[in-house]
Model the fold of this input.
Amino acid sequence: MTESSILSEVRAGYHVITLNRPERLNAFNDAMHEALRDAIAQAEADESCRALLITGAGRGFCAGQDLSDRLLKPGEKPLPRKSLEIYYNPLVRKLRALPFPVIAAVNGVAAGAGCNIALACDIVLAGRAASFVQSFAKIGLIPDSGGTWTLPRLVGPARARGLALLAEPLSAEKAEAWGMIWKCVDDATLMEEAHKLCAHFAAAPTVGLALIKRALDESWNNNLETQLELERELQREASLTPDYAEGVRAFMEKRAPSFGGRKRT
Ligand code: T3D
Done:
């Protein structure tokens, strides 16, 4: 029996997804894309899910597209592929739009689309031994899965160009120093730190966090005036949640809040 290429686990208030093709550094084939899409849909459909943790099995996080599925036979012509339309783009859109925080625990090398999928998550934690590689230029491709959009915004244009054009690995420590990821931690504590973060989010004001994600994402397309309007609209929505009422009550009563994460009472 073959083991599933995606492992899913339900924890108290959050789901954990492990990319599970360790012999290929968790590179994507179609079956893994489909299993990942189903696992994310399950997390989204679970009303008690308030965070999602994504990590990789073995020594890698994800090496992007499985290139063994792209090897042409002698004389064979390359065909236009639809993997971006069918798999990678919908995945990145979904990760950005999930109504709760998505945490990537990058346990090893994150290369190609694997790197940019990690960077599409809301919080990226990486073990010290991990590295990030925009490996596309080594095989004649361009960074996909949002890389050409995400990279210059995270690290600035000069570093984005260097990373994309040279395709050299960036250590987790440097990725943190460059502002590309949230934090680099000791390898031995990576998963513990990631679970702690998820437990924190599982008790957080989830609707407010979803609105924060939206406001920050939309800010890239807006001028200040439009963004102020958006903040007004989203703040109104946040202020109608039971969590806002509870947050204020807990503050005034000098106790820890108990957030339900729901929309309205
Ligand atoms: O066509 C489309 O759908 C377009 C979409 C493209 C999206 C993309 O992601 S394109 C980019 C694809 N990914 C890469 O180019 C990365 C290829 N991998 C590497 O450059 C290196 O493996 C790493 C830098 C990630 C790690 O290097 P290292 O030295 O730590 O490990 P390794 O020995 O190279 O890899 C270990 C094994 O995993 C090895 O198999 P083996 O020899 O033990 O049987 C290697 O072949 C395999 N592996 C790693 N990455 C891939 C892979 N096999 C297939 N596809 C991979 N992407």
About this structure: Residues 24-25, 27, 63-68, 70, 81, 83, 109, 111-113, 133, 135-136, 139, 141, 144 surround T3D (CB under 6 Å).
